Amino acid sequence: MALENILKIIDPVKASAIEKALDGRDLTEKDIVELLRSGGLELTALTMAADLLRKRIVGDIVTYVVNRNINFTNICVMGCGFCAFSKDFRSEEVYFLPISEIVRRAEEAWRYGATEVCIQAGLPPRIDPYHYVHIVEAIKRKIPQIHIHAFSPVEVVYGANLAGVSVEEYLKTLKEAGLDSLPGTAAEILDDEIRAKISPGRISVETWVNVITTAHKLGIPTTSTIMYGHVENEHHIAKHLLLLQRIQRETNGFTEFIPLSFIHREAPMWKYNLVPGLRPGPTWREVIALHAAARLLFREEIPNIQASWVKEGAKMAQQLLEAGCNDLGGTLMNESISTTAGATSGQLMRPRELRNIIRSIRRIPAQRTTLYKIIKTYYNEEDETELDKIENPEEQFGSYWQLVKDPRFKRYVRQKN
Ligand code: SF4
Fold first, then answer.
1. Which of 234, 277, 368, 415, CA to CA, is 20 to 30 A from 286?
2. What is the pLDDT of residue 132?
């Protein structure tokens, strides 16, 4: 059935929100809430509209980036309820990669064709206040061309506080050292009451917005994210999305929007029943509705909406590409944060696998840089890179479970105790 015919028979409030988006008009909080509550034919109409807008705005190309994640330590002074990755420094299961190992991993990734390293970690106690800066300097010294996408707003605030300088000053130092962009993570739901339930003591909404807008002002682009499917409701999500839209209108510093499903299995707040009313992640319907509603809201203002294969799995990511998304994220090579939370998608998606996912829904794959410059569009041709030839990623790149047992990476803990 054609979209216009479906719009005639579904709930008129939801139909009107979809029509507004298709006409390029702004959506209100109420419109977004209605869209997020879509089911059945309404959800069909929402995804059709999102797919239509995606095609109008960015065409049929679906992008991915060849990158490597380096989570250099799991030691963390915080204890966010959703985080199964972090460990107290007294735990047996800790690791801390020295800067030489971070650089080795970045060099290895570069040899395998990576254009980006994505670096995020826990917040280790008594760290050198400029440790983050030293990491960036050391990588750029060896591989000046690699894009360093690193340090969540929480890490930036941690570094700035330890150094006793403002966020702006700390970000400037990171930029001068060679930092290229920041992950817009640690956003979860941008509502202080929700944050107090799932991650008490973590940065406030105001602080998150300050780090992000300061980065944008300094010419450091960031991604934007949401983590949903826990204790929030549709109004919290709608307000979060509208706040991101407002920031983008002021700064134009977001490169993309990445919805991240809450993965409950190993999350402490789920395992120990710490938060009343906690849900075990979003349903299939909620995942589709959120990605599609984001496309209707952000349109060309945030033109890139990512389907995260590591959170959603390859099949769901494929469906999301037909619900407004135009990007599949990165190859990763190593993945610890979702894996420890109970995700089962693995730690590497080879470029050829990403292209197969894209081609099987009749779209066109393209490798991009972190900032969405197209490196190569694969209309018909194929490549087999060294990364495609890797049969056992754990053997080549190591894994989280190997790291926590490796005596070479316990040194930080021993030195400090
Ligand atoms: S989410 Fe980050 S700050 Fe929170 S506990 Fe995990 S590693 Fe630490």
1. 368
2. 98
Distance in Å, CA 356 to ligand 1 centroid: 34
> How many Å lie between the centroid of ligand 1 and the Cα of residue 142?
29
Give me the chain's average pLDDT, please.
95
- Summarised one tens digit per residue, pLDDT across range 138-162 is 999 999 999 999 999 999 999 999 9
- Contact assessment for residue 97 and residue 404, using Cβ atoms and an 8 Å cutoff: no
Nearest-atom number in ligand 1 for the CA of 199 is 4
Q: Is the CB of 269 under 6 A from ligand 1?
A: no
The reply to whether ligand 1 has any atom less than 6 angstroms from the CB of 83 is: yes
Q: List 261's β-bridge partners, or say none.
A: 228
Q: How far is the CA of 197 from the centre of ligand 1 (A)?
A: 14
> Is the C-beta atom of 267 inside 6 A of ligand 1?
no
The percentage of the chain sitting over the pLDDT mark of 70, rounded to a whole number, equals 98
Kindly indicate whether the domain formed by 60-416 is annotated with CATH number 3.20.20.70: yes
68: exposed, middle or buried (C-beta count within 10 Å: 0-12, 13-18, 19+)? buried
The ranges assigned to domains in the chain are 60-416
152: annotated binding-site residue? yes
Q: Which residue has the higher pLDDT, 359 or 404?
A: 359
Q: Of 344, 340, 354, which Cα lies nearest the Cα of 387?
A: 354
Q: In which band, very low, low, confident or very high, does the pLDDT at 416 lie, cut at 50, 70 and 90?
A: very low
